[in-house]
Amino acid sequence: MPGTTALLVGAPDGILEIPTIPSDLQQLKDQFAAMNLPDPADKTRAALMSMQHVLAELGDRIGPLADSLDQTAGSARTTLEATTAAVHEIQADATTTLKNIDRLAIASRQQMATNGKDLDALLSRQGERRPRPTGCSPRSTI
User: Fold this and answer.
1) 63-96 in b/e burial notation, b at 16+ Cβ within 10 A?
2) pTM, 2 dp
3) What is the pLDDT of residues 25-34, one digit of tens each?
4) Which of 3, 41, 67, 68 has its CA 20 to 30 A from that of 16?
5) Contacts of 6 (CB under 8 A, 6+ apart)
6) Residues 6+ apart with CB under 8 A from 124
Protein backbone atom coordinates (compact mmCIF):
# COMPACT_ATOMS: atom_id res chain seq x y z
CA MET A 1 0.00 0.00 0.00
CA PRO A 2 1.51 3.20 -1.04
CA GLY A 3 2.04 5.81 1.64
CA THR A 4 2.12 3.25 4.51
CA THR A 5 5.24 3.23 6.68
CA ALA A 6 7.20 0.03 6.86
CA LEU A 7 7.41 -1.86 10.15
CA LEU A 8 10.94 -2.82 11.11
CA VAL A 9 11.42 -5.27 13.95
CA GLY A 10 15.10 -4.70 14.41
CA ALA A 11 16.87 -7.88 13.30
CA PRO A 12 20.19 -8.85 14.95
CA ASP A 13 23.37 -7.77 13.22
CA GLY A 14 24.21 -9.70 10.16
CA ILE A 15 20.68 -10.78 9.38
CA LEU A 16 18.94 -9.09 6.59
CA GLU A 17 15.54 -7.60 7.48
CA ILE A 18 12.79 -7.27 4.90
CA PRO A 19 10.39 -4.45 5.78
CA THR A 20 6.70 -5.45 5.91
CA ILE A 21 3.50 -3.50 5.84
CA PRO A 22 0.82 -4.64 8.31
CA SER A 23 -2.25 -6.02 6.54
CA ASP A 24 -5.81 -5.00 7.35
CA LEU A 25 -6.31 -8.34 9.05
CA GLN A 26 -3.25 -7.78 11.23
CA GLN A 27 -4.47 -4.31 12.18
CA LEU A 28 -7.89 -5.73 13.08
CA LYS A 29 -6.23 -8.45 15.19
CA ASP A 30 -4.15 -5.82 17.02
CA GLN A 31 -7.28 -3.73 17.73
CA PHE A 32 -9.11 -6.76 19.18
CA ALA A 33 -6.13 -7.56 21.37
CA ALA A 34 -6.10 -3.99 22.69
CA MET A 35 -9.79 -4.17 23.61
CA ASN A 36 -9.25 -6.54 26.57
CA LEU A 37 -12.34 -8.61 25.72
CA PRO A 38 -12.02 -11.19 28.52
CA ASP A 39 -13.06 -8.60 31.16
CA PRO A 40 -16.47 -7.70 29.60
CA ALA A 41 -17.06 -11.37 28.78
CA ASP A 42 -16.42 -12.36 32.41
CA LYS A 43 -18.74 -9.61 33.64
CA THR A 44 -21.45 -10.68 31.17
CA ARG A 45 -21.08 -14.32 32.26
CA ALA A 46 -21.37 -13.32 35.95
CA ALA A 47 -24.45 -11.20 35.23
CA LEU A 48 -26.11 -14.07 33.36
CA MET A 49 -25.35 -16.50 36.19
CA SER A 50 -26.82 -14.04 38.72
CA MET A 51 -29.97 -13.65 36.59
CA GLN A 52 -30.26 -17.43 36.34
CA HIS A 53 -30.03 -17.72 40.13
CA VAL A 54 -32.72 -15.06 40.68
CA LEU A 55 -35.02 -16.69 38.12
CA ALA A 56 -34.59 -20.06 39.80
CA GLU A 57 -35.57 -18.58 43.19
CA LEU A 58 -38.53 -16.73 41.69
CA GLY A 59 -39.70 -19.86 39.92
CA ASP A 60 -40.03 -21.59 43.29
CA ARG A 61 -41.95 -18.66 44.79
CA ILE A 62 -44.28 -17.69 41.95
CA GLY A 63 -46.61 -20.65 42.45
CA PRO A 64 -47.31 -19.97 46.15
CA LEU A 65 -47.54 -16.22 45.48
CA ALA A 66 -50.11 -16.80 42.76
CA ASP A 67 -52.09 -19.08 45.08
CA SER A 68 -51.99 -16.46 47.84
CA LEU A 69 -53.05 -13.73 45.43
CA ASP A 70 -55.96 -15.86 44.23
CA GLN A 71 -57.03 -16.53 47.83
CA THR A 72 -56.82 -12.81 48.70
CA ALA A 73 -58.88 -11.89 45.65
CA GLY A 74 -61.52 -14.47 46.65
CA SER A 75 -61.70 -13.04 50.18
CA ALA A 76 -61.98 -9.50 48.83
CA ARG A 77 -64.78 -10.61 46.50
CA THR A 78 -66.68 -12.22 49.41
CA THR A 79 -66.25 -9.09 51.55
CA LEU A 80 -67.45 -6.86 48.72
CA GLU A 81 -70.54 -9.02 48.17
CA ALA A 82 -71.40 -8.94 51.90
CA THR A 83 -70.86 -5.19 52.03
CA THR A 84 -73.04 -4.65 48.97
CA ALA A 85 -75.85 -6.73 50.49
CA ALA A 86 -75.62 -4.79 53.78
CA VAL A 87 -75.72 -1.45 51.94
CA HIS A 88 -78.82 -2.52 50.01
CA GLU A 89 -80.52 -3.54 53.26
CA ILE A 90 -79.61 -0.27 54.97
CA GLN A 91 -80.82 1.64 51.92
CA ALA A 92 -84.20 -0.13 52.03
CA ASP A 93 -84.52 0.52 55.79
CA ALA A 94 -83.57 4.17 55.34
CA THR A 95 -86.16 4.57 52.59
CA THR A 96 -88.87 3.10 54.84
CA THR A 97 -87.83 5.32 57.76
CA LEU A 98 -87.83 8.45 55.59
CA LYS A 99 -91.29 7.61 54.26
CA ASN A 100 -92.57 7.17 57.85
CA ILE A 101 -91.06 10.51 58.87
CA ASP A 102 -92.67 12.16 55.85
CA ARG A 103 -96.10 10.68 56.77
CA LEU A 104 -95.65 11.82 60.38
CA ALA A 105 -94.81 15.35 59.26
CA ILE A 106 -97.88 15.46 56.99
CA ALA A 107 -100.13 14.14 59.76
CA SER A 108 -98.68 16.68 62.23
CA ARG A 109 -99.35 19.54 59.81
CA GLN A 110 -102.91 18.32 59.30
CA GLN A 111 -103.48 18.05 63.06
CA MET A 112 -102.10 21.54 63.61
CA ALA A 113 -104.24 22.93 60.81
CA THR A 114 -107.37 21.17 62.12
CA ASN A 115 -106.95 21.50 65.88
CA GLY A 116 -104.49 24.41 66.21
CA LYS A 117 -107.09 27.05 67.04
CA ASP A 118 -108.84 24.84 69.57
CA LEU A 119 -105.53 23.97 71.22
CA ASP A 120 -104.53 27.62 71.35
CA ALA A 121 -107.83 28.55 73.00
CA LEU A 122 -107.53 25.72 75.53
CA LEU A 123 -104.00 26.70 76.45
CA SER A 124 -105.03 30.33 76.82
CA ARG A 125 -107.83 29.38 79.25
CA GLN A 126 -105.50 27.16 81.25
CA GLY A 127 -102.96 29.97 81.44
CA GLU A 128 -105.55 32.35 82.90
CA ARG A 129 -106.38 29.93 85.74
CA ARG A 130 -102.84 29.22 86.85
CA PRO A 131 -100.41 31.75 88.19
CA ARG A 132 -97.60 32.25 85.73
CA PRO A 133 -93.98 32.05 86.77
CA THR A 134 -92.23 35.36 86.61
CA GLY A 135 -90.71 36.20 83.26
CA CYS A 136 -93.18 34.13 81.20
CA SER A 137 -95.61 35.63 78.75
CA PRO A 138 -99.15 34.22 78.40
CA ARG A 139 -98.22 32.59 75.09
CA SER A 140 -94.66 31.50 75.54
CA THR A 141 -93.42 28.82 73.19
CA ILE A 142 -90.90 26.18 73.77
Assistant:
1) eeeeeeeeeeeeeeeeeeeeeeeeeeeeeeeeee
2) 0.39
3) 888 888 877 7
4) 3
5) 19, 20, 21
6) 138, 139
